[in-house]
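Quick one:
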Amino acid sequence: MLYETHSHTPLCNHATGEPEEYAEVAHSRGLAGLTVTCHNPMPDGFSSAVRMTPNQFDEYVDLVA
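Output:
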């Protein structure tokens, strides 16, 4: 059983496309599922160029639900 296990949303500032699009491609390739692995917010803006902000976390949860 194969899954796509490393994908991001645009909230990480370095990905394009939406989770629905990723899921469609995974399905078309016969994969069993998709794991969205956005970089979580960190204190003091650590590595903020590639992470969502703390105030985007709820949006992220809704986006991948």
